[in-house]
Amino acid sequence: MDYKDYYKLLGVSHDASQEEISKAFKKLARKCHPDLNPGDCKAESNFKDINEAYEVLRDPEKRKLYDQLGPNWKDGQNFQPPPGYENVRYHFGGGGPQGDMGGFSDFFQTIFGGSGGMGGFGGGSGFGAGPGQGYRRRPSRGTDVEALLELTLEEAYHGGSKAITLQEQAQSPDGRPYLKPKTLSVTIPAGVRDGAKIRLAGQGSQGAGGGPAGDLYLKVAIRPHSRFKLEDVNVVVDVPLAPWEAVLGATVRVPTLDGEIDLNIPPGISSGRKLRIKGKGLAGKAGRGDQFVRVMVHVPKELTDKQRALWEELARESSYDPRQHH
Q1: Which of 142, 132, 151 is nearest to 257 (CA)?
Q2: Taking Cα atoms as reference points, which of 39, 84, 248, 218 lies closest to residue 146?
Q3: Are strands 145-151 and 160-171 parallel, antiparallel or unpaired?
Q4: Is the pTM of this model over 0.85?
């Protein structure tokens, strides 16, 4: 059997981060999934290969061992364990019992366990084996998983329950890994900010040998809004004013994430100035953020003869020069 370059299979560099490896796997898994390519034997083969590569590279200990052996895996009898592997036990050759490695290649089974191959390793790997022993899964906690949770600004502000559907890795009865949908009910904290993480305990990857599952972390991404703009935990909305409203003051209806309110505009306000509505933003470390109403003075584009005459009279009567008073 030939050496398999798991990095090349996933299209990542040898120093790729766990996040880069995970992203590459998810992208290829969607592309090569047998359900999306019925009857395509090549797609099914590719799907098995990338799952096998991900199974190794996602696990720091398996990845470390794979990197140490590399193309020279057939010379493993002379392999010197790297630091931290003092308690690892290896078993080469022989006719030991077949490990539960369905769906993986002979190369994988030879490196990570299976009949006639190298037994699993102890420590935190979840496997323990020695000459003549079966391959016993030791309880180990599943890995944590992170997923993106997109919310509207209203959903983030009000919070509440939301049903989400994710794709999780599972294994068919014949041992073939595949992705299946998983629907969860998530309680969104009121005022959750962009970039915050919501933890769902026990909803990550399944543990090995009866060990507990990892956790699922949902990273919040708030979608752009058609009316409101988000600045950290503060919400900003533009409100247009007529010139006479800006000069004389007015009471105008303005939108908030809790509905419209009447806002008093002080006389003599300039375009671009912001008025604060306290506590109408998202949740921050120092408490709720605020909403800011930015005043935008708009002028009429079309005037009747009488309106133009009145503006001209005002111009003659006024001594105000904005370029001197700026």
Answers
A1: 151
A2: 218
A3: unpaired
A4: no
pLDDT in tens, 10-50: 999 988 998 999 899 888 887 876 656 665 666 677 788 88
Q: Are 282 and 156 in contact (CB under 8 A)?
A: yes
- DSSP letter string, 16-65: --HHHHHHHHHHHHHHH-GGGSTT-HHHHHHHHHHHHHHHHHTSHHHHHH
* Radius of gyration, CA atoms only, the chain: 32
Query: How far is the C-alpha of 24 from the C-alpha of 11, rounded, in Å?
Result: 7
pLDDT digits over 254-276, tens only?
A: 999 999 999 999 999 999 999 99
Question: Per-residue b/e over 76-91, b at no fewer than 16 CB within 10 Å?
Answer: beebeeeeebeebbbb
Packing angle of the helix pair 18-32, 41-57 (nearest 10 deg): 160
Supply 162's token pair.
């939301």
State how far the Cα of 228 lies from the Cα of 302, in Å rounded to an integer.
Answer: 29
